[in-house]
Amino acid sequence: MNPTATDGIGKERIGKYELRRLIGQGATSSVYLAWDPFRQTEVAIKRLRREIVRDPQRGRLLRQLFLNEAAFAGKLSHPHIVRIHDAMVDDEDAWLVMDYVPGGTLDDIGRPDTLAPFERVIEIIFKATRALDYAFHQGITHRDIKPANILLMEPGGSDIRLTDFGAALHTARETTQIAGVGSPAYMSPQQVREVPLDHRTDIYSLGVVMFQLLTGHLPFEHDNNYSLLYSIAHDTPPLPSELRPEVPEALDAIVRRATEKDIDRRYQDWSAFSHDLALAFRNESIRPAADTVPDAEKFEALRAMHFFRRFSDAELWEVIGLSRFSRARAGTVIMKEGERGDAVCFVLEGEARVKKHGRLLNVMSTGECFGEVAVFSAAAGVRSASVEAATDTALITIRAAALKRASDTCRMHFYQAFLEVLATRLSQASARIANL
Fold this sequence. Notes:
Number of strands: 19
Strand content: 15-25%
Number of domains: 3
CATH superfamily of the largest domain: Transferase(Phosphotransferase) domain 1
Distance between the termini: 84 Å
């Protein structure tokens, strides 16, 4: 069977997809930019080389990896995981249709001459931890985490998509095989020893990726795989600062814990890994400009708020995309009594005073919101009170129009949480009136 054809006017196709150009080649497959006429969008098609497909040994293994990737990735719906839309695998051909991610791979920023700023590295690794945590809760361990399998949405950005779940396993009872599954330089000691694996093998591999993004080198570099695998199994990796002295101590500590040879001393779950990455932003030597808030810090702040407790990770990333994060100096009027407005604000950090006719009504602290009535108004409502920053304050602002663009589930969770806030405030107001 040969699904590559022309339509009579010189356009080459794979199945129903019109090929536009070759965008990448590897040892076993090629990747094409193509046009999906049904969805009216560009897609990427990864296709096994014909000689590989027909190889009696490698062909069988790689066809199975393609089937795995289609099966596993098709079950994963997360903003930082590439979606698989279509697949075809038989004895003559094998290809996958997936999202087109145009920004290249982390290989592009993993060399000494192309290193990214520390804050960007943390953003990228943080998002990868959240995606892999999501996959873990679906029962999936990737097993082939490496820079080439982490795609950038745009050059110079930090928005990523994980890809290539062909080597993934669905239970911890399976083991990897060095010949054929995984990339030796990023393998965990457990993969090298061929012992049963769980998500902590991915934690190790992502730690190696982080090491490379910080230094431009791998923890172990040898001329042959035998020496490389021996070092992974037996030697202690260096700290990133040993290769690049300006790497902050906080990042040294994260990489060291992620790449612990003893699995019980490694991060035991993705949440702990994510948490330490978020804390690293508090180190002044790696913070971006004072008027910006990194995505990892936004995510951690939202996740810690009672208001957002019912939101999934995917919905929190959606909220981040809908929101404006800003800072206000003490004394700044954030909302003014009598003015029209259509936005709700959450206090990310600091305190804000609510006043009516100059009289203090309430003090809002971290995690609390104000202006929520505007979200339910058909048009911009008139503010019934003023809000000013009592201290230097970090804010999250969401306009009613932006919330309308949210997914149904995300919007439902907003409305549920807003109703809880309104009910609580009504109850508190009734209690105060009763005590007069």
